[in-house]
Amino acid sequence: MIIPNNKILRIFGLIVLFVCIISTTAFCQKERNATWILGNPKDGNLLKFKDSLTVSLIDPGIYTAGSNSSISDLEGKLLFYTNSCWVANADYKLMKNGDTINPGELKYGYCTNFSGAPSPGCVITEFPGKKDWYYIFNVDFDIPYFGIDSFAAFAPQRVMYHIVDMTRDSGKGEVILKNQIALYDTLGRASLIACRHANKKDFWLIAPKSHTNCYFVFLVDENGVNKPSLQCLGERWSDLDGQGQAVFSPSGQHYARMNKWNGLNIYDFNDSTGRLSSPRPRIMFNQDTFHVTGLSFSPNSRYLYASPLYKVIQFDMQSSNIEASRIDIAQYDGFRNPYGTVFYLSALAPDGRIYISATSSTYNLHVINMPDCPGKASEIIQHGVTLPGFNFSSIPTQPHYGYPPSNYGCDSTLNGVKEDLTSKRLFDVYPTVTKDKVIIKYNGSHFKENRVVSLTNLAGNQLTYYFSLQTFNDLDLSELSSGIYILQILNKNKVIFQNKLVKIN
User: What is the CATH architecture assignment of 34-392?
Assistant: First the structure.
């Protein structure tokens, strides 16, 4: 056990904690994305990102191929999820009034015959100003569209929204308003995405207009879903507007969109005004991709990862030439379980890692362990997560609720001692919200003598702990006052790890 040499008790910490609880700060709300649902009825997967990733076999009741979004409460407990056809509650049962969303071709085509929407096209957000209310946004498919690509069988025609009240049905939730049309137009597929407003209360929603260089941008605030602005910039998208993915950076300063025929398109985004700007030259992938592509930003928003079927590629957003910064960090290794685990949709998880699905039913996800690190130091592990149930290409679409940049120590040397940081995280600290203690797990083989742990509250008051670093280390916080703290691990006065902690009573 690590014993503090100095105990500082401040009421300021309790005040900070109270502010955190009652506000909608990014740090407090990152648990919104703590639970993912993947897979098929009777053969699905529950992924929980509390302290560390746990995976369980469940019966989710609905298919989650393609469109998939979920949301949890501020403690990381699942509230509900949807596949653009049905809404299910935390008991994995159909939510009250959640069975008739999305009338039209989608409902009576894909939803009935294939049990789910064909591509990413839904997202759940909080309802600004309504504590227990939530929005479900989705694109609907109304008019058959048969282009050259058979995977573009339907063109989205509407942005629709539905409202869930979690106080209904004994806390299991009820869809109290549904099938509301926010926009009727020809829209791009697989590209509906939400971004948290700079005020940490409202949201922005982007839906591209198909076959153009235009984007509908919605403000969602306490007044509801506002009329969108139409912003036209960058290069025009072709008529082949099929499978792909769109994503905001966690910082809210970038928006990217990608598919096979139109390549990677990157814009700056102002999360205060909702304006797109500074379109970058389009990046094409030639033979690197098929009809499917995925995108994710790193937690610090510096690196953008593209997953065009056979490769995973990193781009540096700070480069003056983003295309020239390209680094191929993975080539498909041929693994099958039972089908090929090539690369498809991706998502940044609350644990700071990026998870990538395959295009077909498999029992695996790929994982980028340290996405804030450059090049292959980001450490991608192909089929590194084994699932108990099938997953058919699915990854949830969720807004970022403020994931802080991770502290891996990306350099190959620290204080003159070589540490293999490309094969492991240096430290794991958990739980990050605690009443009595945290565990510091050390994953390396150096830095075992005369280490220092520093805890600093938001008033600048510091506690210092001296210890010899072991594989597992208990840090006793039982007599520490409530509040938010910055935990640092130092070696020879150099910070080698940093993380945030919340102490509660």
Answer: 7 Propeller (2.130)
